[in-house]
Amino acid sequence: MRASTDAQGGDLRGLPDGSYLDLGTCVNRYGPPPSVAAALRSVEPEHLLAHPYGVEEIFTQTYAKFMATEPEQLVPGRGITEFIRVLAQLLPSNEVAVITPDYTDTIRWFPTHLAPPPGVAETVQTRLERVDRAMSAYPYVVFSNPNNPLGLYLHRDFLTEICRAHPDSILIVDEAYSEFLSEHAGLSMVGSGLRNVVVLRSPNKLFGIAGTRTGALWTRNEDIARRVAERKLNWTLSYVDAVLATAALADTMWADRTRTALLRDATELEGLLIERFPGQVRGVPVHYRFLPVADPVAGHRFFLDHGVVVRAFDGRQPGRVAGLRITVPTSAELAKLRESLSAASAVAPRLIYR
User: Fold this and answer.
1) Residue 27, CA distances (Å) to 7, 267, 289 in order
2) Measured between alpha carbons, how far is 76 from 38 in angstroms, rounded to an integer?
3) How far apart are CA 305 and CA 344, in angstroms?
4) pLDDT tens digits, 305-340
5) Three-class DSSP category at 72
6) Average pLDDT, whole number, for the chain?
7) Is residue 288 helix, strand or coil?
8) At 90, which helix (H) or strand (E)?
């Protein structure tokens, strides 16, 4: 079996044969909404004959409405990962700093990492302080908000204040999980209105459509928008990608109901895990929880033995913190998880986690 800390979230190919509950990827397990299934059924073979002229514009208009912004300020793309790689090609690597821990591809493509001091527990305040210091020293600062994998969210008002204090530095924010926040449109840096802000967004996680590849870069910085747009391929989005993502984004009632259910389930999951994992990052407004552990491989194996896949992070790798990230299951899956862990508690002592 491949080392669990090497596997991307959701990649189960290295596991032994068997049926597993996949809580290792942060895609909403309640998705996709029924509107996506209906849109998929509406695709006819003749729709695929021609190149997908015009679908980018339809997607961009729909996503801009969802974000409460203007379509002209969005550059469409194939998910956030594509934008991270394009920016890594465009920006001088020695001028970019990443506030770590952070997303796999971010720390892979930008080598300068600003970690918390050894032994200091990461908090909203410690991250804000590092963003402030980084923007005073680097032309570009990158981080995820809410953070992947910790789940900590830095309020837009605080970040806006920091950006205004450092107008010569550009903050690049990966907001892959901002759409899981209540009142997400009012909490995104898209609403900052500042020219020294770049926001990366994708509907794939909230709507449970990671099998499609859609996303957008928002900025009021004309130079960055132009340079990123110049790197776009012809027909960035396929017809199928655009049709399914547009249908999902229009289903705001489903999104609202599901978001409420996820946050409720997250609170229950937190309570379920707290005895065995007392160091977990608690009270974060997202649909996953981070569990600091001394041995993430052993922690991964513990869950795997009970039919559950979680995401393991090796703290020895640059930009990482040792631990497990576990995505909130659906209500029905949560009940099964509770039963499984209760049985485990009856036969095994509490694992040694820090």
Assistant:
1) 16, 18, 13
2) 24
3) 10
4) 888 999 999 888 889 999 999 999 999 999 989 888
5) helix
6) 92
7) strand
8) helix 79-90
